[in-house]
Amino acid sequence: MSMYRGHLLGGLAAYFIAIIIISVIQGTFIHYGPGLLAALAGSLFPDIDIRSKGQRLFLKLLLIAVLLCLYLKAAVPLTILLFFSVLPIIFPHRGLFHDTIFVLILSFLFTGALIYSMPSKTETIVITMLFFFIGVLSHLILDKGMKKTFYQ
Q1: What is the pTM of this model?
Q2: How many other C-beta atoms can be found within 10 angstroms of the C-beta atom of residue 41?
């Protein structure tokens, strides 16, 4: 099985685990479509610094996000997306994008920028970014194992 497929399956599993936990806490089953897409994108995100099918899929999602920002005239998120699209060229594979703290900080910064641009969508942005980070964690756990992901 190709690595990107394994990471997508890991992101899918992480999404369903999170949905089950949330559903048990709320007492009712929920399904969150944008969260699924965010978890899948997150499961591919750490490998954007290497030429792969996963990178191509992620860059296609990035292009959609850039076009959406242009359509919504969201300058701050657009600027951040364009800045972060250059980072994979600068950093080596399994460098910053495989660092849990860096990706967490990156997620917070991007979430803040989106909330700044679209304050009426705060809840949706936060929930979606949470699922994105869950997808990233699934990738890191599959690559490095549980111990190295959380206790570097």
Answers
A1: 0.78
A2: 22
Closest to 10 measured CA to CA, from 102, 104, 96, 136: 136
Tens-digit pLDDT string for the chain (152 aa): 457 788 899 999 999 999 999 888 887 777 788 889 899 989 988 887 777 776 777 678 778 878 888 888 877 777 877 777 777 777 666 667 788 888 889 889 888 888 888 899 899 889 999 999 999 999 989 887 776 666 66
Render the chain in DSSP notation, one character per residue.
Answer: --HHHHHHHHHHHHHHHHHHHHHHHHTS----HHHHHHHHHHHHGGGGGS-SHHHHHHHHHHHHHHHHHHHHT-HHHHHHHHHHHHHHHHSPTTSGGG-HHHHHHHHHHHHHHHHHH-GGGHHHHHHHHHHHHHHHHHHHHHHHHHHHHH--
